[in-house]
Amino acid sequence: MSTPAMPSLTSSAATSAAIARARENAINRGSVDADEICPVCKSSRYLNPNMRFLVNPECYHKMCESCVDRIFSQGPSQCPVVGCDKILRKQKFRKQTFEDIQVEREVDVRKRIAKTFNKRQEDFPSLKEFNDYLEEVETVTFNLINSVDIAATEAKISAFEQSNKATILQNAAKAAQEAQFVQAQRDFEREQHRRARELEEEAVAEEKRDKLEHRANLLKALQADDADFEVAKVNKMARKKSSMRKENQERRAKELEAARNAPAFQFLANLNKPISEEPQKPYDPLDGYDETNKYFVYRDKYENPWLEDALNSKSMMAGGYLVQQYCERAVFEAFSGVGCFIEDPPLSDDTSPSFDTPMADAIAT
Amino acid sequence: MKFQIEYVVISVSTFSRDHRLTDLNSDLPVIFPYPRIYPEQYQYMCDLKRTLDAGGHCVLEMPSGTGKTVSLLSLIVAYQQHYPEHRKLIYCSRTMSEIEKALYELKALMEYRAKELGYVEEFRGLGLTSRKNLCLHPSVKREKRGDVVDARCRSLTAGFVKDKKERGEDVELCIYHENLDLLEPHNLIPPGVYTFEGMLKYGETNKQCPYFTARRMMSFCNIIIYSYHYLLDPKIAERVSKELSKDCIVVFDEAHNIDNVCIESLSIDLTEDALRKAARGCSSLERKIEEMKTTDAEKLQSEYAKLVEGLQDASTAREEDSFMANPVLPDDLLKEAVPGNIRRAEHFVAFLKRFVEYLKTRMKVLHVISETPPSFLQHLKDLTFIERKPLRFCAERLTSLMRTLELSNVEDFRALQEVATFATLVATYEKGFLLILEPFESETATVPNPIFHFTCLDASIAIKPVFDRFWSVVITSGTISPLEMYPKMLQFDCVVQESYSMTLARRSFLPMVVTRGSDQVAISSRFEIRNDLSVVRNYGNLMIEFSKITPDGLVIFFPSYLYMESIISMWQGMGILDEVWKYKLILVETPDSQETSLALETYRTACCNGRGAVLLCVARGKVSEGIDFDHQYGRTVICIGVPFQYTESRILKARLEFLRENFRIKENDFLSFDAMRHAAQCLGRVLRGKDDYGIMVLADKRFAKKKNQLPKWISQALLDSEMNLSVDMSVAAAKKFLRTMAQPFHAKDQEGISTWSIDDLNAHVNKIKLQEEEREQMHLGGAQVQNGNGRDDYEISDEELDEAMMKLG
Q: Which parts form a coiled-coil structure per UniProt (chain A) (predicted)?
């Protein structure tokens, strides 16, 4: 059994290796042609086909991986490109996503801008104002990208951030929720898809089975004495079956359709509701859990001759042994399961002192 | 010949036409330009009229070569002239030659009408085709490529060029186009029917541009004849067919492929090369903007101001000189203003650049990806912060920008336009589309050549505006079976759905299904056995035998180029080709259109001079669509194998899945339907009229079960005894058939059977009337009155069948 599986396994491994290799090639190919030269060490791809280029979002100067290793392994250092005085860290180096380095930079700028300027159309009374806002944002972005009055633009950004702190947070939350919703919807659709597919396959299989069965029945009927009558009977049965099957299928398909159209997730409803903000409270690590015990009251001292020695013995005390701690724990353990039985009458606080007598007895015996 | 067609009321719930006056419920006088009429032509006209009266859509299948076009035109012209509404006819056909044919037909009809009526009616019928075919400008018309002609024409005729001229700049204008402005805008050409030739002649004598004459006169025409694309391709339809009124009658002739046309018109393929060009286009746009900023900043500012107001105002100039294509935009979008972040020209160009770069990064992936538009948009947003909304406006915004920049050389920006169109489509439609990235051309290729397919899966999207807008849409073809598939796929309700049989005085075509070779081995082009020696040899034998007995032309269709090549090389090795060579020349269709037309020409010569020839071609190729093999050009057609599509194609798979999920069309049903319509199309090539004759051979085992998927006129002629033949039996049948065909046959023999004179027609009408009366009397109890053609007769319910069976037992 395992032998025929082997070649397919190895072949799949081989293909995956091939794909990986091809992908590697493509990445190389992505950064243009075969004889590209690293601007720092001047080694060319012709000699080293696996050369990879990295950029740092500080200055976007491209260099090969080995250069990055060589220069920045010892810690932050100046960019080796002539005329660039930026201090770069190795950690920040990354692979280039876009072929055009300008676009790479632009996207980084946009990432930053999008975090701050995330107002939505609902925040504006009219579409025109929203469009004006969008244009404003675009201008700011453009200034940053093309390095036009950076100081003024930065000031503008921080001013906006200051004045719209609340909305920014709110909108970020909304965006996150929306993303979640989209994900949920996609999952839901995939699930529906799968179910529909299953149904379909089932129906096809059923039909096939029925057909075979029908043929067998027909042959059997033909062998009978009054073949005509038997054949008619078999045919009728088959027709009935097929019409039943059709009905069944239709019903199921309808169900599926209904499920698809039904408001299957509350996300949709939630999405349009504004998120009501809860007032900020001091941080509570136990999330409102009440530590006090209502089943017993702990006493300072329990009469127990067994513990007398320990209470007074210096050697015990020196080790850090505390009788109180022992008693506390014993009592706690004794009552620790009490709240779990719903049928039990709830124990009120005032009855709990009476418990310590038998408790003490128990310890005494 | 003049006759009347009765007004038959059919009740249609969806279309209420209460506004129709009662006095219109009269008989319609039809003038038919020939002294004889075929019975099916009369039927066709009756059904057509019923549809028009009811105001709905219909699907009609009429055998090829039975005068479909002329009956359609004569009925609709009669209809137009009789009723005061004068509903316009838009007649769409597939190829240039078919359009031309229809124009000639219309011209003859109108001449006949004038003679019959004694006066010339006020009537205009024009055809529209590309600039390349209609250009008169001495240097432009010499260009070979269509897009070059378009570009050069635009540079001579665009609105801003004229403005420049008026400002005194030295620019060239097309004199033919300029002369149009001197004429009355609603009377550029006197009434009458013009063929393309006629248009060119008229244009030459009056020094006016035929193309723009046709374009501008479109709203003043009674009949417009043009290609599907002017109506279906949203990019063109927007500009060309916008002003057509709602009550137009739209006819799609040769419509068996209409779903594919719809799908193609909304699908876009992007290659790496296109993206590179688009990026270049972006840079040159950037430069142009810089230039304009220094010279004419005012203009950019005014465009900006317009865009702030809204898109609609900005594109009021969307006229015939708007050289850019726009995909369909919902109306509400057009009224909305362009989003603020692409309002400024430089912002927009940066936006485009970012989008192109994003697409480039997508291209680098080396495994197949298929995703829906929403997931694509999500990823796009995550990576580049491009929102959906500005993306939707992309195409429109680019048009506006290019108009502002006064770019006349559109060639450089073609790729960019494509990307913009893609952007708009992907952001507009969520359902019915799929993005597929195929990094390799074939399974075995190692060098990546990525193609990004944006495929439309739903044929109904492109055609929906047509159905929504026009009251009557007629879909007709020679081979459009099974009829119910089309309403399902294109999502419309039809009033009449009819397939006509062919009335023949003699059995003039012989369809056969050959399932076995002479050695009784089953023959099939099924993938597993298609290269088996016995199958190949049997197919070869079939060809040899038929090339021996067929007079003149023999046409053989294969399912694909690949299979044709492999089987031909195997035949060469077996010496089969040498054997055929003794009887016929062998010619082969290739994907190259020039080679193919040369082969066709040679084939025709060989058929005419008696040498005879075999044409080997492909069922989905150029030859199978639109080239007729009438009379001696095709006496036998052999369809080797069922012409299924290449089922491993990812696009096809996606479409099948879509069809199954949304329209509940099973994969196999669709594949089989698609294969059979192509097979029928191939078969229909040989028979182009009632005096023609031919043999149709379907050579595959699997055809035996597909009889009911053939068009009615073929399946009726296909006898049960000829459903399961071996090669030698089919040869014997063919020999016998050819011998009967060789008997003298006079036109007189057809009289009253397959051709009717006016007396026959009247007799028929009376007979129908009598029958109807009788039936009415019989059904006086209140049962439904059936229409005279009794097409519901063989619908027997299960119960009835059961009972019949039980009685038998």
A: 189-259
Residues of chain B in contact with residue A208, where contact means CB-CB under 8 angstroms, are: none
pLDDT digits (tens, 9 = 90+) for B32-73: 888 888 888 888 988 888 888 888 899 999 987 788 889 999
C-alpha B104/C-alpha B95 separation (Å) is: 15
Write the Ramachandran bin of A149: left for phi over 0, alpha for psi from -120 to 50, otherwise beta: left
- C-beta of residue A196 within 8 angstroms of C-beta of residue A256: yes
Instruction: Give B571's contacts (C-beta < 8 A, 6+ positions apart).
Output: B536, B540, B543, B577
Nearest-5° angle of CA B742, CA B745, CA B746? 160
Q: Tell me how far apart the alpha carbons of residues B214 and B191 are, in angstroms, rounded to a whole number.
A: 12
Contact call for B347 and A200, based on CB within 8 A: no
Contact present, B310 and A131 (Cβ < 8 Å):
no
Q: Is the pLDDT of residue B526 over 60?
A: yes
Compute the distance between CA of residue B615 and CA of residue B550 in angstroms, rounded to an integer.
13
Distance from CA of A342 to the nearest CA of B (A): 51
Band of pLDDT at residue B116, cut at 50, 70 and 90: confident
Residue whose structure tokens are 């491209």: A62
> Do B805 and A134 lie within an 8 Å CB cutoff?
no
Q: To which H or E segment does residue A308 belong? A: helix A305-312
Contact B350 A30 (CB under 8 A): no
Distance CA B184, CA B182 (A): 7
CB B614 within 8 A of CB B581: no
Of B354, B378, B808, the CB nearest to A103: B354
The pLDDT value recorded for residue A362 is 42
Name the residue of chain B whose CA is nearest to A196's CA. Answer: B661
Which of B367, B375, B664 has the CB atom closest to A186's CB atom?
Answer: B375
Structure tokens at B213: 């004459």
Strand residues in B131-267 grouped as ranges (E): 192-193, 223-227, 249-252
Percent of chain B predicted with pLDDT > 70:
89
Task: Specify the DSSP element, H or E, that contains B320.
Answer: none
CB spacing of A231 vs B664 below 8 angstroms: no
Of B340, B448, B661, the CB nearest to A131: B340
Would you call A182 and B385 a contact, using CB atoms and an 8 Å cutoff?
A: no
Measure A43 CA to nearest chain B CA, in Å. Answer: 24
Inter-chain residue contact B384 with A107, CB threshold 8 Å:
yes
Q: What is the pLDDT of residues B240-253, one digit of tens each?
A: 777 777 888 899 99
Task: Compute the Cα dihedral for B325, B329, B335, B337 and give only its sign.
Answer: negative
Yes or no, beta carbons of B339 and A235 under 8 Å apart: no
* Closest chain A residue by Cα to residue B348: A138
Residue-wise DSSP of A117-170: ----GGGSSSHHHHHHHHHHHHHHHHHHHHTSSHHHHHHHHHHHHHHTHHHHHH
Q: Are B29 and B4 in contact (CB under 8 A)?
A: yes
**Chain A residues within 8 A of B806 when measuring between CB atoms:** 232, 236
Q: Sorting pLDDT into bands at 50, 70 and 90, what band is A358?
A: very low
Phi, psi of B433 (to 5 degrees): -130, 155
**Parallel, antiparallel or unpaired: strands B192-193 and B124-127:** parallel
Residue B352 confidence (pLDDT) above 90: yes
Scan for tokens 């339907």, then name that residue: B673
Closest CA to B635 of B712, B711, B547, B504: B547
Cis omega before residue B373 (within 30°)? Answer: no
- DSSP letter (8 states) at residue B662: I
Structure tokens, B304: 């900006």
What's the pTM value of the predicted model, to 2 decimals?
0.78
Selecting from B347, B357, B385 the residue whose C-beta is nearest the C-beta of A110 gives B385
Q: Establish, for the pair of chains A and B, how many residue pairs have beta carbons separated by less than 8 Å.
A: 103
Task: Specify whether the CB–CB gap between B38 and B756 falls below 8 A.
Answer: yes
